[in-house]
Structure prediction request, 157 residues.
Amino acid sequence: MTGASRTEWAREPTDEERFRPLYARLLGLRFVNPGGVLCFLFFEGAVALAALLALAELVDWSAVLILPAAVALMVKLNDMVAEAVVRTAALVPEQERDRFRRQMEPVVGRVRVDWTHRTVTGVVVASEPILRPPRRDRAPGSDHPDTTGQGPSVAGP
Prediction:
């Protein structure tokens, strides 16, 4: 004989079960726990949306019954997927879970940095100033840029 036993029917619901929204209790949700506002949006929102679509003659009036049922089906499917994920996660060995937690936890504290001399290509660090050749946009013998707009003067024959 399948179904609930007599003791299951006779037991009193706990406070947690008693205060769950009717929508969640009717669907028999075990892993997804939507609150009252979300349950209201799931059911009454789907009915209102279907009624608006029907009034706009975008869908048939049967959508007022079909859309809330489709939303309820998706919520129940989401609960079943959550159940499968929880059961699969329970099968992972404890060692793997610990390793995963260590990898995912942020490390808070100080990090010891070894100051080793490493070479970085393209970067030169010097303790003495580097003498640079004069730039071409400056007049020879002048520290100021050429403001005439003619560039450096070139004496020709």
